[in-house]
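We modelled the chain as a single entity of 270 amino acids. Its sequence is:
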Amino acid sequence: MSGGERPELAEVPETALWTLWHRAVEARRPDTVLEDPKAVELVDRIDFPFAERFGEGALVSQLQALRAACFDREVADFLTRCPRGTVVGLGDGLETQSWRVDNGRADWLAVDLPETAALRERLLPPDDRRRILACPVTDPGWMDEVDPARGVMICAEGLLMYLRPEEVRALIAACAERFPGGSMVLDAVPRWFSARSVQGKLRNRHYQAPPMPFGMDADEHGKLAGAHPAVTDVREVYPEGGRGLLRALLPLVRRVNARPSVVALRFAGS
């Protein structure tokens, strides 16, 4: 680590560093499942005890990379359909997706809490197509910054678990209403994992995961359609590829109901 930016973040914003670290750990591998040189660059620029605080588990890093790849595939598909559309990253943290799948024409909007948005602005300065907005994702004001004319894809990666269930429902409903014809991709932790986090039982020697009040098992995905009548399609996005034993286990994991999941939603057109 070269040393440089020294972030001081509260427990939920600090998860931006956790996910960045694990993407970078995986990206450094010659057999990586996620090419992410920007994440490696950021970790080298940030003065933070990543390994000591978050650990260096190869399995965790690969799982985080496979999750990110699920979101990447959905965004890439959206950009094929709407090449000049807008991709909104809610709770975007230090996500580097726009460097992995950008098509050179899309607009990108990162929405996050003020302290995280300020860190992102220092490390990933905005440009002509990449904007940063300091705004809580539960404040619908961020929607006024999105032009829906050329299509909208909303990414909520590693976010909804930190909201209350009623906030999750309200956010999906507001997006469905404001962005007809749009898409949304989100992820969820299973209920047992949510419960353990709320009880403070997800920790290692130096790091305790913040409470995650929203959890959802795989057989509950259909309930997301109940957030708003305009939610017309709900489907799971399964991780693909993988390395080693995990590659063999992924098809079997699909049979487990209480597992993490990535879900894509479509909204009805106007």
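As a brief sanity check on the tokenised model: The chain has a mean pLDDT of 94. The longest strand covers residues 231-237.
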